[in-house]
Automatic annotation (TrEMBL):
PANTHER family to which the protein is assigned, alphabetical: AMIDOHYDROLASE-RELATED DOMAIN-CONTAINING PROTEIN, AMINOHYDROLASE SSNA-RELATED
Protein name stated in the entry: 5-methylthioadenosine/S-adenosylhomocysteine deaminase
Segment forming the signal sequence: none
Cofactor note text: Binds 1 zinc ion per subunit.
Binding site for substrate: 93, 145, 186, 216, 301
GO MF annotation list: 5'-methylthioadenosine deaminase activity; metal ion binding; S-adenosylhomocysteine deaminase activity
Gene (name only): mtaD
Residue intervals of the Amidohydrolase-related domain: 55-402
Family: Belongs to the metallo-dependent hydrolases superfamily. MTA/SAH deaminase family.
Organism: Halopenitus persicus
Amino acid sequence: MNALAVTGGRVLHPDGRVSEADVLIDADAGRIEAVGEDVTAGREIARTLDAEGGLVMPGLVNGHTHVSMTLLRGYADDKPLESWLREDIWPVEAELTDDDIAAGAELGILEMIRSGTTTFADMYFSMDRVAEVVERAGVRARLGRGVVAVGKEEAEARADLEGSLEFARTYDGAADGRIRTAFMPHSLTTVPENLLTEGIELAAEDDLWVHLHANETTDEVEPIVEKHGVRPLEYAADRGALGPDRFLAHGVHVDGTETELLAETDTSVIHCPASNMKLASGIAPVQRLREAGVTVGIGTDGAASNNDLDLFDELRDAAMVGKIGADDASAVPAAAVVEMATSDGADAIGLPGGRIETGAAADLIVVDLEAPHLTPAHDVVSHLAYAVRGSDVRHTVCDGTVLMRDREVTTLDAATVMDRAAEHAADLVARAEE
Ligand SMILES: N[C@@H](CCSC[C@H]1O[C@@H](n2cnc3c(=O)[nH]cnc32)[C@H](O)[C@@H]1O)C(=O)O
Ligand SMILES: [Zn+2]
């Protein structure tokens, strides 16, 4: 066995307990072999990661993003979703080249590895280029090409749909299984009924997952209620968009019937608190969804509506806004957001990981706890939700491979990636504003 040992720290166990323990990893299999106090005794260890003064926990799962949108970070702020997309974002996205998308993906994945995210779900275009970066950077992802029909001729929209299905079929299982895919219609209002139904039927024929934005703003809910006389998620269910291998981003404006529908169909929701606050979309009923038995993960959404991909920020935002939303300070507690960002997030998007236990995927991070803002440490789980930042992450491991050691990313060259992304971003904006 090619053994990697993470030693001298404390471990966050799946039940939320924290204890002193080492973690033994089979690096070739990408699996956790053992967790405990003596697991390295008498073993030949090829490499060691020092976890002294730190917490070993699952790599975080960013359940919904558009990673290449890092190029648009800070480009258009302080607007609601509709006008932000139509007036600012979509015109610039129309100028995006494949190379821009690759440069943005490198930047976003670099940022995620540095802040402790090993796994993400992504909807964008030129996804073959994103897949290439995922493979090289060593992370895990569920990827899909977004389908938008607004402003397009039927033939062009149909070609988009075909492209999304084709990408999903071709890349599922790529990068030694680290890449899984999904058919990704953008949302219930940007893809018309016939294309949505048809795409989902074709996806189901090939057992492909489905991911879309849903019930993000009231502007998205009203047209569906008006046109079809039912709530958006009832409409979605009738078109096959709900089920255990489907997950929705946002779920902000979800009523009681829709909550039941999500629970009954075992459909997961990815909560994106920062994006929902920034675009003033509303407050997702996370406490209610969880109480109903819906699996809820956490996502950053794109960097243009966040504006970073640091998932620790999102844990804090989720806990905070969850309380405001429920008008109850005990709602969405620390342990819940940690679960949402790890095991529940992995389950929501159907990827392995999210647990430090024997047999689980070796996707883990070491968080440095020796810092003024983390002292004293009465309750480590509280710190993860309310005080830890992405910059506290010391090591990142995915699929048994060390992606960052002592804050140095090993699979991407940080300086090169940042320079290239800044250059692509400047050229892109210049072209769009020409
Ligand atoms: N626009 C592409 C495909 C969609 S990719 C995913 C899209 O989601 C957009 N997006 C980013 N954040 C959000 C959000 O919060 N809600 C809805 N769409 C978003 C993003 O700008 C991107 O255009 C096409 O024409 O084929
Ligand atoms: Zn989104």
